[in-house]
Amino acid sequence: MPQVEVKCSVSNCTFWANGNNCAAPEIMVEVDRHANFNSEFAGELGVQTEHQDKASNSAETCCRTFRAK
């Protein structure tokens, strides 16, 4: 399986690393029924990785791997 760089702007996650990178050994991705996305966008528009956000729990993110520091 190819290695990929995973960007993350949730800076209070245990796995957050400098440069807005995710250092988790594995990532859990699932459908977010509460998100309001009308189309795929990551490949077309690019992902904004310059900002840093904070979350209280994984339900506030699109990442089920999130664990608060």
Automatic annotation (TrEMBL):
- Domain named DUF1540: which ranges? 6-66
InterPro entries for the chain? DUF1540 (IPR011437)
Q: Name one Pfam family in it.
A: DUF1540
Record protein name field: DUF1540 domain-containing protein
